[in-house]
Amino acid sequence: MADEVKLFGMWASPYSRRVELALKLKGIPYEYIEEDLSNKSSLLLKYNPVHQKIPVLVHNGKPIAESLVILEYIDETWRNNPVLPQDPYDRAMARFWAKFIDEKLLTTARKVSFATGKEQDQAIEQITEQLKLLENELKGKEYFSGQSIGYLDIVANVLVFWFRNLQEALGVDMFTEEKFPIIFEWIGKLVKIDTVNECRIPKEKHLDYIRTRLEALKFSSK
Q1: 52-65: pLDDT as tens digits
Q2: Which strands form 5-9's sheet, in the order they lie side by side?
Q3: What are 132-135's contacts with CB under 8 Å, separation 24+?
Protein backbone atom coordinates (compact mmCIF):
# COMPACT_ATOMS: atom_id res chain seq x y z
CA MET A 1 0.00 0.00 0.00
CA ALA A 2 1.40 3.39 -1.01
CA ASP A 3 1.94 6.04 1.61
CA GLU A 4 -0.75 8.70 1.81
CA VAL A 5 0.84 12.05 2.63
CA LYS A 6 -1.07 15.28 3.06
CA LEU A 7 0.25 18.69 4.03
CA PHE A 8 -2.01 21.35 5.47
CA GLY A 9 -0.29 24.67 4.89
CA MET A 10 -0.60 28.31 3.93
CA TRP A 11 1.13 29.84 0.92
CA ALA A 12 2.83 32.73 2.80
CA SER A 13 4.03 30.70 5.78
CA PRO A 14 7.79 30.04 5.94
CA TYR A 15 7.02 27.12 8.26
CA SER A 16 4.75 25.53 5.67
CA ARG A 17 7.23 26.22 2.86
CA ARG A 18 10.08 24.50 4.69
CA VAL A 19 8.05 21.30 5.00
CA GLU A 20 7.24 21.45 1.28
CA LEU A 21 10.94 21.84 0.53
CA ALA A 22 11.86 18.79 2.62
CA LEU A 23 9.18 16.67 0.93
CA LYS A 24 10.37 17.74 -2.52
CA LEU A 25 14.05 17.13 -1.70
CA LYS A 26 13.10 13.63 -0.58
CA GLY A 27 10.95 13.06 -3.67
CA ILE A 28 7.88 12.24 -1.56
CA PRO A 29 4.53 12.59 -3.38
CA TYR A 30 2.00 14.51 -1.29
CA GLU A 31 -1.32 16.30 -1.44
CA TYR A 32 -1.20 19.96 -0.48
CA ILE A 33 -4.24 21.49 1.24
CA GLU A 34 -4.25 25.29 1.45
CA GLU A 35 -5.73 26.62 4.69
CA ASP A 36 -7.59 29.90 5.18
CA LEU A 37 -6.23 30.93 8.58
CA SER A 38 -9.11 33.35 9.11
CA ASN A 39 -11.53 30.44 8.71
CA LYS A 40 -9.69 27.27 9.69
CA SER A 41 -11.06 24.00 8.37
CA SER A 42 -12.56 21.36 10.59
CA LEU A 43 -9.83 18.98 9.42
CA LEU A 44 -7.05 21.32 10.58
CA LEU A 45 -8.72 21.68 13.98
CA LYS A 46 -9.15 17.90 14.13
CA TYR A 47 -5.53 17.15 13.24
CA ASN A 48 -3.97 19.89 15.38
CA PRO A 49 -6.38 20.52 18.28
CA VAL A 50 -3.59 21.76 20.58
CA HIS A 51 -2.17 24.67 18.56
CA GLN A 52 -4.73 24.83 15.73
CA LYS A 53 -1.97 26.01 13.39
CA ILE A 54 -0.30 25.03 10.15
CA PRO A 55 1.71 23.21 9.02
CA VAL A 56 0.32 19.77 9.76
CA LEU A 57 1.60 16.67 7.98
CA VAL A 58 -0.79 13.73 7.85
CA HIS A 59 0.91 10.43 7.05
CA ASN A 60 -1.44 7.49 6.56
CA GLY A 61 -4.04 9.22 8.72
CA LYS A 62 -1.61 10.13 11.52
CA PRO A 63 -1.06 13.88 12.08
CA ILE A 64 2.26 15.51 12.99
CA ALA A 65 2.35 19.21 13.91
CA GLU A 66 5.12 21.83 14.29
CA SER A 67 7.48 22.30 11.34
CA LEU A 68 10.75 21.30 13.05
CA VAL A 69 9.11 18.15 14.41
CA ILE A 70 7.72 17.40 10.95
CA LEU A 71 11.15 17.79 9.32
CA GLU A 72 12.66 15.24 11.69
CA TYR A 73 9.73 12.88 11.18
CA ILE A 74 10.15 13.08 7.41
CA ASP A 75 13.88 12.36 7.69
CA GLU A 76 13.38 9.39 10.01
CA THR A 77 10.51 7.91 7.99
CA TRP A 78 11.98 8.28 4.50
CA ARG A 79 15.67 7.44 4.81
CA ASN A 80 16.69 8.41 1.28
CA ASN A 81 18.49 11.74 0.82
CA PRO A 82 18.99 12.34 4.58
CA VAL A 83 18.77 15.99 5.62
CA LEU A 84 19.87 15.71 9.24
CA PRO A 85 23.59 15.10 9.88
CA GLN A 86 24.56 11.53 10.73
CA ASP A 87 27.06 12.57 13.41
CA PRO A 88 25.30 13.03 16.80
CA TYR A 89 27.18 16.27 17.62
CA ASP A 90 26.49 17.79 14.20
CA ARG A 91 22.85 16.76 14.52
CA ALA A 92 22.60 18.42 17.93
CA MET A 93 24.16 21.63 16.56
CA ALA A 94 21.76 21.66 13.62
CA ARG A 95 18.84 21.41 16.04
CA PHE A 96 20.33 24.17 18.21
CA TRP A 97 20.62 26.62 15.32
CA ALA A 98 17.19 25.69 13.96
CA LYS A 99 15.72 26.56 17.34
CA PHE A 100 17.75 29.79 17.33
CA ILE A 101 16.22 30.78 13.98
CA ASP A 102 12.66 30.10 15.10
CA GLU A 103 12.82 31.32 18.69
CA LYS A 104 15.25 34.23 18.35
CA LEU A 105 15.56 35.46 14.77
CA LEU A 106 11.93 35.17 13.70
CA THR A 107 10.66 36.47 17.03
CA THR A 108 12.82 39.57 16.65
CA ALA A 109 11.69 39.96 13.01
CA ARG A 110 8.13 40.19 14.30
CA LYS A 111 9.21 42.88 16.77
CA VAL A 112 10.66 44.86 13.85
CA SER A 113 7.37 44.43 11.98
CA PHE A 114 5.13 45.71 14.74
CA ALA A 115 7.35 48.33 16.39
CA THR A 116 7.99 51.94 15.41
CA GLY A 117 10.58 54.61 16.14
CA LYS A 118 13.17 53.88 18.80
CA GLU A 119 11.64 50.51 19.65
CA GLN A 120 11.99 49.41 16.02
CA ASP A 121 15.58 50.68 15.88
CA GLN A 122 16.42 48.58 18.95
CA ALA A 123 14.81 45.51 17.40
CA ILE A 124 16.84 46.05 14.20
CA GLU A 125 20.04 46.24 16.26
CA GLN A 126 19.06 43.03 18.00
CA ILE A 127 18.32 41.17 14.76
CA THR A 128 21.60 42.41 13.27
CA GLU A 129 23.51 40.79 16.14
CA GLN A 130 21.51 37.58 15.75
CA LEU A 131 22.22 37.45 12.01
CA LYS A 132 25.93 37.94 12.71
CA LEU A 133 25.87 34.92 15.02
CA LEU A 134 24.10 32.85 12.39
CA GLU A 135 26.49 34.01 9.66
CA ASN A 136 29.45 32.96 11.80
CA GLU A 137 28.03 29.42 11.80
CA LEU A 138 28.17 29.46 7.99
CA LYS A 139 31.81 30.59 7.68
CA GLY A 140 34.00 28.21 5.69
CA LYS A 141 31.05 26.08 4.51
CA GLU A 142 29.25 25.65 1.22
CA TYR A 143 25.95 25.26 3.06
CA PHE A 144 24.94 25.26 6.72
CA SER A 145 24.82 21.47 6.46
CA GLY A 146 28.24 21.15 4.78
CA GLN A 147 28.73 20.26 1.13
CA SER A 148 25.04 19.96 0.27
CA ILE A 149 21.70 21.37 1.36
CA GLY A 150 20.35 19.82 4.56
CA TYR A 151 18.16 20.32 7.62
CA LEU A 152 19.53 23.67 8.77
CA ASP A 153 19.50 25.06 5.22
CA ILE A 154 15.83 24.07 4.96
CA VAL A 155 15.07 25.91 8.21
CA ALA A 156 17.22 28.93 7.30
CA ASN A 157 15.53 29.10 3.89
CA VAL A 158 13.24 31.65 5.57
CA LEU A 159 16.02 34.17 4.89
CA VAL A 160 15.99 33.52 1.14
CA PHE A 161 12.51 34.76 0.28
CA TRP A 162 10.29 35.51 3.30
CA PHE A 163 12.80 37.61 5.22
CA ARG A 164 13.82 39.79 2.28
CA ASN A 165 10.17 40.35 1.30
CA LEU A 166 9.39 41.42 4.87
CA GLN A 167 12.27 43.89 4.84
CA GLU A 168 11.09 45.42 1.55
CA ALA A 169 7.49 45.71 2.74
CA LEU A 170 8.62 47.43 5.94
CA GLY A 171 10.97 49.79 4.10
CA VAL A 172 13.85 49.05 6.45
CA ASP A 173 17.48 48.24 5.71
CA MET A 174 18.43 45.48 8.13
CA PHE A 175 19.45 42.59 5.85
CA THR A 176 21.82 43.47 3.00
CA GLU A 177 24.66 41.81 1.11
CA GLU A 178 27.02 44.48 2.38
CA LYS A 179 26.24 43.62 6.00
CA PHE A 180 26.05 39.84 5.56
CA PRO A 181 28.15 38.76 2.55
CA ILE A 182 28.50 35.14 3.65
CA ILE A 183 24.74 34.64 4.05
CA PHE A 184 24.07 36.30 0.70
CA GLU A 185 26.65 34.07 -1.00
CA TRP A 186 24.77 31.10 0.48
CA ILE A 187 21.46 32.55 -0.78
CA GLY A 188 23.00 32.81 -4.25
CA LYS A 189 23.72 29.07 -4.18
CA LEU A 190 20.26 28.15 -2.93
CA VAL A 191 18.36 30.10 -5.58
CA LYS A 192 20.17 28.09 -8.26
CA ILE A 193 18.51 24.91 -6.94
CA ASP A 194 15.28 24.19 -8.83
CA THR A 195 13.61 22.52 -5.84
CA VAL A 196 14.22 25.60 -3.69
CA ASN A 197 12.68 27.84 -6.34
CA GLU A 198 9.63 25.59 -6.54
CA CYS A 199 8.98 26.56 -2.90
CA ARG A 200 9.51 30.27 -3.50
CA ILE A 201 6.87 32.58 -1.97
CA PRO A 202 5.49 34.74 -4.84
CA LYS A 203 7.12 38.11 -4.19
CA GLU A 204 4.49 40.65 -5.24
CA LYS A 205 1.64 38.64 -3.73
CA HIS A 206 3.63 38.32 -0.52
CA LEU A 207 4.46 42.04 -0.38
CA ASP A 208 0.76 42.89 -0.79
CA TYR A 209 -0.12 40.39 1.92
CA ILE A 210 2.40 41.82 4.40
CA ARG A 211 1.39 45.42 3.72
CA THR A 212 -2.30 44.60 4.10
CA ARG A 213 -1.65 42.91 7.43
CA LEU A 214 0.44 45.81 8.69
CA GLU A 215 -2.24 48.32 7.67
CA ALA A 216 -4.91 46.26 9.42
CA LEU A 217 -2.74 46.18 12.55
CA LYS A 218 -2.27 49.96 12.50
CA PHE A 219 -6.02 50.49 12.03
CA SER A 220 -6.92 48.13 14.89
CA SER A 221 -4.47 49.84 17.25
CA LYS A 222 -6.03 53.31 16.76
Answers
A1: 999 999 999 999 99
A2: 31-34, 5-9, 56-59, 62-65
A3: 132/180, 133/100, 134/97, 134/100, 134/101, 134/105, 134/183, 135/180, 135/182, 135/183
7 vs 111: CA distance, rounded Å: 29
Tell which residue, 203, 200, 220, has the closest CA to residue 17.
200
Concatenating the DSSP letter of every residue in 2-23 gives ---EEEEE-TT-HHHHHHHHHH
**Element (DSSP H or E) covering residue 31:** strand 31-34
Would you state the pLDDT for residue 2? 72
Instruction: Identify whether the C-beta of residue 167 lies closer than 8 Å to the C-beta of residue 173.
Output: yes
* Kind plus residue range of the DSSP H or E element containing 114: helix 106-114
> 109 with 115: CB under 8 angstroms?
no
Prediction pTM value: 0.94
Q: Quick one: which of 192, 189, 201, 75 has its CA closest to 141? A: 189
Q: How far apart are CA 74 and CA 64, in angstroms?
A: 10
Cα 4 to its chain centre, rounded Å, is: 24
- Alpha-helix runs per DSSP H in 115-202: 117-138, 151-156, 162-170, 181-190, 194-198
Residue 76 identity: E
Q: What are phi and psi of 57, to 5 degrees?
A: -100, 130
Phi and psi (nearest 5°) for 194? -55, -40
Specify the 3-state DSSP secondary structure of 36. coil
